[in-house]
Structure formats: C-alpha cells, structure tokens
Amino acid sequence: MGNHSDDHPAKPEGTSEVEAKAGQTVLDKFENPGLPPHRPRLADTEPRAAKRAERQVVVLFLISVIGTLLFFFAYFGVHLDQSIGALRLQNMLLGLGTAFAMLGIGTGIVHWAKTLMPDHEVSEERHELRSEADRQDAVEIADTIIEEAGIKRRPLIRNTLIGAIALAPLPAIVMFRDLDLNPDVNKLRHTMWKEGTRLVKDPTGTPIKAADVTIGSAFHVIPEGLNELEEGKLNEKAKAVVLLMRLNPDELHPSPGREDWGYNGIVAYSKICTHVGCPVALYEQQTHHLLCPCHQSTFDLTQECKVIFGPAKRPLPQLPIKVDAEGYLVAQSDFHEPVGPSYWERG
Amino acid sequence: MKALSLKRRHPLAVLALLLMGLLLTGGLYTLATSVNQAKAETTTYSAEDVEQGEKLFIANCATCHGMGASGSKDGPSLVGVGAASVDFQVGTGRMPLQAQGPQAPQKPQQFNAEQTKQLAAYVASLGAGPSVPAAEFLDGKGDAAEGGELFRVNCAMCHNAAAAGGALTQGKFAPSLAGVTPEHIYEAMITGPQNMPVFNDANITPEQKRNIITFLQTIEANGSPGGNDLGALGPVSEGLFVWIAGLGLVIAFTIWLTSRTS
After folding, report:
1. Closest by Cβ to B35, choosing from A42, A214, A298
2. In sequence order, which residues have a C-beta less than 8 Å from that of residue A16 and are 6 or more positions away?
3. Is A245 exposed, middle or buried (0-12, 13-18, 19+ CB in 10 A)?
4. What integer is the mean pLDDT of A98-108?
5. Is residue B167 part of a domain?
C-alpha cells in the first residue's frame, strides 16, 4: 500500500517529460511561413490595363441598367394578345432582364474588386477592447476603404454603379404595386353556389343527372351560369370548382347533421386545396383518396375529406347537394365555410 | 358436392354453367344501383369465342377471379365489367397480374389478340358492361382543341398536362399516355382501370372521347414547341437540370471569385 502511494506521483512526471521532448522535436521544424510575397497585378503596373478594367466594370454596370430597362420594355411594351407566343416572349424577356440587372451589378463589383481595388495583404494584431479610440479607428478604416476603392478617383464607375443600383429594385416595386393592396375579404367567403344552382360539367356546362354518375365516376363540376359570366369568370371559377364522385353509400361516414349533404353515395367537395389553393383533383377510386399534386396533401373521401397526409390543415369543404324535380343535381346552399387556404380574417 | 364435381365433364355441364351465369347476372343486374347504359355490342362474339374464352379463363384467371368469374378474396368479380375492361387489362399485359402490389404494371402481353378477344367474349357473356369501342371513335380525326380542354380538366392532374404521367400516393402512379393505342385510351376512360376514375358516356360523350384521343395524338405528333421538353415530367427532370446546369454555374462563379487576377 505504502509502496504504491510513493510510486504514484513519480510516474506521471516521467511520462510528461517524455511527451514534452517528443513534442519539442516536432515543433522545432515548424516555422511561421509569413505572408507570401506580394505579386502586383497587371492593372497595378500598367495604367492601360487599369483603364481597360475600369471600362469593363462600367460596361458590366451598364449591362445591369440595360437589363432593368429590358424588364420594363417586356412588362409594358410587349402586347399580350391571345397568342401563347407573346406570353412566352414576355416571360423570357422579364427573366432575362432581371437576370442581366442582377448579374451585371454582381459581376461588375467583383471584377472591380479583383482588378482595381488594392489587393495588398494587411495583418492586424489582436488588441484590448477600447471604446473611443476604436470608434476613431473605425472611421479611419472606412475612410481608407473609400480612398482605396478609388470611388472618388473613378467617377465613371461610381456613376454607373449608382445608376444600376437605383434601377435594379424598380421591377420589384412595379410588380408589388400591381398586387391588390386592399382586398375585399368578403369575396373570399362566398362562391357562386346558392340554393338550386345546377351542377354542370366543366368545361361544357351540361347539367348532370344523378343517374349519370355511376360508382367510381369523377365529374369536374362548375356552377351553372359560370360560363355566361362576362367579368371575373376565372376568379369565380377558381373558388367554385367542385369534384363530384360516387361511392358505395356504405363507405361514407357522414357526421351528424351532414347525412343528407350527399345523394345516394354521390358527394361533392371543393376542388381547392386548403393548403395553398391548388386544384385537388387526383382521385383514386379504389382507396377514395384525393391527392393534391403540389404538396401531396391527401384527403380521405370516406372521412369527409379529412387530411390524412401532407401540409393541408383543414378538410376540403363539402358542397351540400340534392336532386331537383327533373333528376338533375343541384346545390342545397353555398359552402358552409370559406373554400381554399386559411387567411387572417377567416376566424 | 363430390357427386356434382364428378359430373363436371357431363355434356350438359356447360348448359348448367351458362344457366347459373345467367341467373347470377340477372340477379346482380337488378340489384346493381349502377345505371350505366351498356352500349350495343360493337364487336360481335360467336359462341365459339365464348367457349374458347371460358377455357382460357379457367386455365389462367380462375385462380384469383374464381370459377365463373364470381370473384374471390384475391380478385374481384368480373360479372358486368364488360369486354372493354378485359381488352384493356389483358391487351396491355396488366392481367394476368404478375405480382401483388400497389398497382398492376404494364408488361408484355400474355395473350395474343385472338385470345384476348375470346376472353373478352367470355366475360362479356357474363353480364352487360362497357364493350370494346367502335372504330369511328378511334380514328383520331376529332376536334383536338376541344379534346385538349377536356384533357386539361379531366385528365391532366394525374397524367400531366403533356400526358407524360405522374405519381400518385403510396407507390401508385398514372402512366404516360405516349404510345398507348386509341382503343386502350378509350377503354381506360369507360372502365376506370386500377385507381383511375370512370368517365362514362354521360360524363364524357363518345364524341368527346374521340376528341381527347385526337388531342393526345396531336401533341405526340407535334412534339414540344418550346425546344427540349426534358421529358415533360415537370419538377423531376427540371430539378435535375437545375442541379446540373445551375449548380455548375454556381461552381463556375465560385472559381472565378476566388481565382487570382493576372
């Protein structure tokens, strides 16, 4: 026992000596390489190369300006007639214009920094934190940067840069201006459906007889009168579209109060996804799942279109339907809740 | 039961089977809530076809669909599914099913046209159902513009706007429609194979089905008007393009940013 405790302190001392020696032999060979020798660039030594680089930067900034102008030409200048070609042309010019506007500024600044701004190496020692003196230093550094960047000596670069940067955000402002800033929320609450509106086929507008809907069928439905609308037809359609399906009535499990919303296994649900409003129309007639192609929200038709997978939060709203005297399918009322994605005022 | 099975080769057995089939059909027909009007037979089947079809059926299909096609736990009853369904499922090689799975895949046909016709004749004899479409609706000379509109409303969400196909849930998929014969497209619409909904003649009229087929043939013949369509699959192939071309561009910029200036 005593022996052991006597030996104990000696042992680690010995090992640490060995380790230190081994470490020193390695460290002896490692030298601080220091900074590599400074190699001047072409533009540092030759004024003609500097002048050429300056012109290149100016050209890149001008490309940005031209890109922005191209955007505006496409936005206001391309006349959108009925042909798909004009739309394609406009899309392409909008994209190219924005790309040139952004890339021109970016590549211009990088080219400027790489060729004209000083590239000498600066090393700074770590030091104690000071307050007043630091502030003074910061101002000096900023001054040095402005001085070294040569923005005062090269007015052409300065002017084109200011021009490009001033123009580049304008497309975004123009596009946001065109958004409806003051929407009437009540428009979202109601659709064209009301009591007695016939369910008709999209796009032909033919009314649907209940007897025509066989088991396993899926009908794409719009309200009667939608095709005759003069104005806002697409907006109304985007809210009112419905998918009509027929299942074996035993497979449906309506909650209390909703038993008579369908007819003999025929049910109608809003086609607008409650996530971000894409048309949910992928109906699997064996599993009775409705799938949204955009983000894979899956709704179970047998459980009143409850969300069983994906990012959607609410079930699809059901359109209560009945059959009129002539056997045609008609709506009992509008949807009982707003269709489509959630919004603040929905409550 | 054993005595009955011993008599199955009796000359009158076929008659008895037919009688049973008729009774079953009649009974199911009155029970069925389905009101799909079976169209008049456009293809005529001889008694010979039915007889040969039954033999083929018993040898190849009865294991799952049951004797007399009345269904079992492995396969649904085929009474009333009609000739169109058989022509589609067998004609595209989906049936006989190769393996249980989320969806019956298309594979080389196991029966030739004659045998397919005989099987169709047999199943059609079991009960009224959608029949093989008439040639006048398959000629591809309809209104492609109207067909395109109908396709975008009824089909494009699953089969893709360019009919290139798309994914469904849990391993199921909507196949590409490129290269599918007009006959099979028409039959798929009226019968709703696998998870496809049924588009009966009250939903999409035969003339409209002809227009849809015309549209599909038009887009297949004309190709992509905007240059290379990258398979027209949408986000998958376009995403791959962005990964390769877009990331290549990003890497090129990175190299430029960090390179020394001469």
Report:
1. A214
2. none
3. buried
4. 95
5. no
Task: Name the nearest CA neighbour of A161 among A100, A102, A105.
Answer: A105
**How many beta-carbon pairs under 8 angstroms link A with B?**
84
| Domain-located, residue B91 | yes
pLDDT score at A178: 74
Q: For chain B, how many structural domains are there in total?
A: 2
Confirm if B262 and A41 have CB atoms less than 8 A apart. yes
Q: Do A282 and B198 touch (CB under 8 A)?
A: no
Model pTM above 0.90? no
Determine, yes or no, domain membership for B95. yes
DSSP result, B38-75:
PPPPSS---HHHHHHHHHHHHHHTHHHH-GGG--BTTB
Is A295 within 8 Å of chain B by CB? no
CB A246 within 8 A of CB B66: no
Q: Give yes or no for A206 touching B (CB within 8 A).
A: no
**Per-residue model confidence as pLDDT tens digits over A38-57:** 888 888 899 999 999 999 99
The confidence score (pLDDT) of residue A17 equals 45
Q: What values do phi and psi take at A31, rounded to 5? A: -115, 150
CB of B28 within 8 Å of a chain A CB? The answer is no
Q: Which of A199, A222, A251, A291 to mutate to test the interface with B (most CBs of B within 10 A)?
A: A291
- Does some domain include residue B247? yes
Chain A residue closest to B169 (CA)? A291
Give alpha helix (H) positions in chain B.
Answer: 2-6, 13-31, 47-60, 62-65, 82-91, 113-126, 144-154, 156-159, 182-191, 206-222, 235-241, 247-258
Mean pLDDT of B210-224: 89
The answer to the question of whether B64 is labelled as a binding residue is yes
DSSP string for B235-249: HHHHHHHIIIIIHHH
Contact A285 B198 (CB under 8 A): yes
The minimal CB distance from A284 to the residues B34, B149, B172 is found for B172
Where in the sequence is the domain holding B237, given as residue range(s)? 230-261
> What span, in angstroms and rounded, lies between the C-alpha atoms of B161 and B175?
13
Structure tokens at A291: 């799938």
A290 in B contact zone (CB under 8 Å)? no
Distance CA A269, CA A292 (A): 13
CB-count exposure of residue B237 (10 Å: 0-12, 13-18, 19+): middle
Report pLDDT for B34.
46
Q: What is the distance in angstroms between the Cα of B48 and the nearest Cα belonging to chain A?
A: 32
**Residue appearing with tokens 């609410």:** A314
Domain boundary pick from B129, B159, B177: B129
Model confidence band, residue A13 (pLDDT cutoffs 50, 70, 90): very low
pLDDT at A18 over 60: no
Q: What is the mean pLDDT of residues B228-250?
A: 87
Strand bridging mode A289-291 / A298-300? antiparallel
Q: Could you give the 3-state DSSP secondary structure of residue A199?
A: strand
Instruction: Name the domain boundary from B67, B95, B129.
Output: B129
Label residue A25 by pLDDT band (50, 70, 90): low
